[in-house]
Each structure stands twice: as structure tokens, then as C-alpha cells.
Amino acid sequence: MNVGELLAATVPMVKTLNLEFLETTPERAVLRLPDQPDYHNHIAGPHAGAMFTLAESASGAIVIAAFGDQLSRAVPLAVRAEIGYKKVAKGAVTATATLGRPAAEVVAELDAGGRPEFPVKIEIQREDEAVSGEMTVIWTLRPNS
Asked: pTM value?
């Protein structure tokens, strides 16, 4: 099962919003929210909640891609998130997530018995490539008991 299939199978909102997984690597995850009238806001663009879910899902995809080999000993959990809506979005939007801390450093902290936290930065773009939103999600790897 690839990362997109795994998230679609375990996170119902991924399927609900019909999110498309364009790229999922330990370095970068790119997801697309198609233009869907059922998820529009009052100005006929993607609803803020749908854009939040798109960005958070992109962050989850990169976390699974980067730390999937750690799942037998730790559970990835989002700790907090902050989003800024920069420009009005219309049509489909794409979220690109990148790790804000080297994966090896996070794993080393887990190896030392810690519960590492690390940021994932996400940029949301319109079809014209203008940045319509920016988000940061702080994740942790919670060691299994």
C-alpha cells in the first residue's frame, strides 16, 4: 500500500474530500484538492476547512513517508497547527509539504528515549501558482508503551 492508499484507508476525510496524492516522498508531499462545488465557501472557492484538511493531510503524508519505518515503535500525532489564508482561492488547490527538521535528527531523539516534535511547513497554491495559504503543523512521534 502506498502512502496515499494508506491515508485514504485510515483517514476518512481524505476520501470524503477526494484528495489526490501527486507526490509522496520523505522530502516532499504534494496533494491536490479538486474543484468541487460541495466544498465551496460563500465566494465559490474552496472552503477554509477543506483547505485546512488538504494541508494537514499533506503534512501527514510526508510524516508517513519520512517515518513509516518507525510505526512499529511510535505513533505520529499532530500536536498543533497554524494556518494563514493569503489570497482568495478559486478552482483546484495544491498543498506542498516539507519537513522543517531533518528526519535523522528526529529519529535520533526517538532513539534516545525522547518524544520528538518537529514542524511540517505547507504551502497552498492556486492553479495559477499564487500562494493562497501557508500552514505549519507541529507533529510528534509518541513512543509506544
From this structure: 0.95
